[in-house]
Every structure is written in structure tokens, then in C-alpha cells.
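ok so for the tutorial part 2 we go from a plain amino acid sequence to predicted C-alpha cells. step 1 is just haveing the sequence, like this:
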Amino acid sequence: MRLEPAKYAYPVLFMCRLLDVSRSGYYEWRGRAESATARRREELKAFIRDAFEASDSTYGHRRVHAQLRRAGVCVGVELVRHLMRELGLVPCQPRPRRFGLTTAAAAPVGDLVGRDFTAPAPGRKLVGDITYVPTMEGWLYLATVLDCCTKEVIGYAMDDNYQTPLISRAIRNAARNRPLADGAIFHSDRGSNYMSTEYHNVLTSLRLKQSAGRTGICFDNAMAESFFGTLKNECVNRTAYSTRDEARQHITRYIEFWYNRRRLHSAIGYRPPHEVYIEHKNQQIAA
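step 2 — the prediction. this is what the C-alpha cells look like for a chain of 287 residues:
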């Protein structure tokens, strides 16, 4: 008996006999039309690929799922995860991080937050911190202010040093960009700049209450730390900056046009921070 030329490792007839499948049944199965389920999966793959690429390869399966639901696509989160694995779509991953203790001495400032990074309305509770970004010209330092209600970066400043005027500009920019309630809390770590008399006077002039976590305990300012982790994972660590100005422009674009206005944030129901701010603002107008 003449066997067909083997397309794979073994002839079709041999495999049909081994699996107790008729040869005619195999060819009928192979030539059948694509099922509705298969067509649906291919459609979903196209939606998933578009959402993933629109996020600049930063979204994992949960955020891709949330984005599809916002677009009216009905699909389960586990199916999204499975299809992303089939497509080989892997979001950028954070680099390993080494934690160390700070050397700044503690100042008589209490912790008014207690790791509760939520607020009933915008402008009531803020967190801030400083991070550094490497460039070929040297470090670029970034100071930020985030709103605990909306998770929005409402103020930031960048410079080639991390002296007190840098963090003062960040908090003043926040007060300019968003209305802050009298007695609103501003929470930070116990870095020497945040504990300085100069910065305390800035907060007093803006009628803000100063708060700080314990020395060397990064979890006491986890919300600010989390933002920097996201920024570096999705933006900074994927780029080699030639100049500080190039880094400044790139980070500004990320904050203003992606993080605040488009990136889905899990802590606020997978919505963009600015959308949550507008929702609160409209509720205040309606009231």
C-alpha cells in the first residue's frame, strides 16, 4: 500500500490508524468551515491587540479587559488573559527594586494618613515625593503631588537638583491647577527637604496640614511610591534620554496625556483619573 507523502513527522494514514479515526473523517474535519466560536475569538484578538498597542504595551490582561468593557465589548477577564497569552502580548515589567533606609532625621510631624490613601472628594488629601531620572547629562529630579481621591497627578516640577524650591514649585503648581480645601492634608516621607522650615512655611501659606510617614518605611507613602514605580516601568526605563530637556518633555507627555487622561487606574474602578475628577466636579455643580 502506497502511503501519502508525509507533511509532518508521520503520514496521515498512520496517524488515523493509531488514533482510531477514519481517513475520510479526518479530511472532512480538516475542510470544515470555521466555527462561530473561532470567528469570535479572532475578533476578540483584534480588539485585544488594538487595546494593548494603544497602551504602548503597558496594559496587562485586567486593564485590557477594562478597556474592552469601556468600548462595549463583552468578554471575560480570563478569556482576555488566555488570548493575550496566545498572541504573545506581554506588558512591560518593573525592574527589581532594592529598598534602603533614608538618613534624614525625623521631625516633629505626625502621620495624619495612616496608609489610608483615599479621600471623599478632590483637594482633601494629597501625597508627594521626589524621584530621579537618569540622562546622559546627569540626573533629572521629579517632584510630584497626587490627589488621593482621583489618583491624578495635580502638580509636579523637574530640575537638575532636589533642593527645597523644587518641591515648593510642585505643591504651588498643584494649588494653581486644582482648588485645595482649607486644612487639606499633604503627606510625604521624612526627607530633609520635606521636613525643612522653608517647606513648612510654604504649606502654611497654602493652608495645608503637614503629614509624614515613619523614617525609612516606604509603605507609609505607598501611593507616591506606586506612581513612581508605574512611571519608571511604563515610561522612563524604556527610554535612554540624551538630555534633561528630552526627559522632561517625555515625562510631561506621559503625565498629562496618558496617566492623567487615558490610563485606567485600578483603584478608581479602572477609569482615568481626570474622568473621576470631572465626575466629582459635575456632582458639586449639580448640588
